[in-house]
Design goal:
The chain is built from one helix and two strands, in the order ββα. The protein is largely without helices or strands.
Length: 68
Amino acid sequence: MNKKGHVTVLSKAGIHRIDNVSISPSLSVHMYGLDIGTAERHSYDPVTGEVSKFVSGYCNVLGDEEAE
């Protein structure tokens, strides 16, 4: 478990999962060294072990703005 202020660096092929096990809100900042909106990436299902490829694309609309 990471402590406040912890930084984790993953390799290009790093598999990671992010959970908040606290009842308090959590903030996570992700910094990528490539254009992830157009890059082919992978999704991993820990239950089945299946690896799937995807390209996330972009969304310039924030969810909270839609409710206004």
